[in-house]
Design a protein that fits this description.
Length: about 170
C-alpha cells in the first residue's frame, strides 16, 4: 500500500445533507411566457387569466426560496422551502402564519397560546445575547411582502375575471 504522504482528504462538512435537485426557475418563466404568447396570439383574455393564475400559484406555493425566519438571536434561517407562504418547520411555520395574518391586518385566530407582547429587541442580562421577539422574528421581507400582495391581487383579478366571463 502506498501512503498518502502530504495529501489531506477534504474535511467532511458537518450538518449538511444532500438535497434533491430542483427544476430551474427558467422552466417556470418559459411556461409563463408561453401563456402570454398564446394569449396574445389567440387574443384570449381567458388564457391570460389562466397564465396569471399559474403565476400566483407559483408565487404562493412553488417558488424555491429560503425560510428567512429570524432566530431568537436575530440570524435568518437559511433552510430551503417551496413557496412564499411556507417555512421550513412547524415552529417557523407558526411564526410565518402569524406574519401572514399581520400582513392581512388581522391577528391569527388559530394561535394556540397568546404571543408575548411585542417588545423591541433586548439584551438578556445573564448571557449578553440579544433576544428578538416573535413579532420581529416572523416579519416578512419587503420583497416577500410585495410578491405575496401582488399574487393576492392577481388571484382576486382571476376570480373577478372568471365571474365576469360567465356573464
Amino acid at each position: 500500500m502506498v501512503a498518502n504522504l502530504g495529501k489531506r482528504e477534504p474535511a467532511a462538512r458537518r450538518g449538511t445533507r444532500r438535497r434533491p435537485r430542483r427544476e430551474s426557475a427558467l422552466v417556470w418563466w418559459v411556461l409563463f411566457a408561453a401563456f402570454a404568447g398564446f394569449a396574445w396570439w389567440l387574443q384570449s383574455w381567458r388564457i391570460a387569466l389562466l397564465g396569471l393564475l399559474a403565476w400566483c400559484l407559483y408565487q404562493f406555493m412553488l417558488v424555491p426560496t429560503m425560510c428567512r425566519i429570524l432566530s431568537q438571536q436575530g440570524a435568518a434561517c437559511t433552510e430551503r422551502t417551496r413557496g412564499r407562504l411556507f417555512a421550513c418547520g412547524p415552529d417557523h411555520q407558526r411564526l410565518r402564519n402569524d406574519a401572514l395574518w399581520r400582513l392581512a391586518g388581522l391577528r391569527n385566530p388559530f394561535q394556540k397560546e397568546p404571543a408575548e407582547p411585542s417588545r423591541p429587541p433586548r439584551e438578556d442580562g445573564e448571557t449578553g445575547v440579544v433576544v428578538v421577539s416573535p413579532d420581529l422574528r416572523g416579519r416578512l421581507t419587503l420583497f416577500d411582502r410585495a410578491l405575496i400582495l401582488l399574487a393576492a391581487a392577481g388571484t382576486v383579478a382571476v376570480v373577478v375575471g372568471t365571474i365576469y366571463g360567465f356573464r
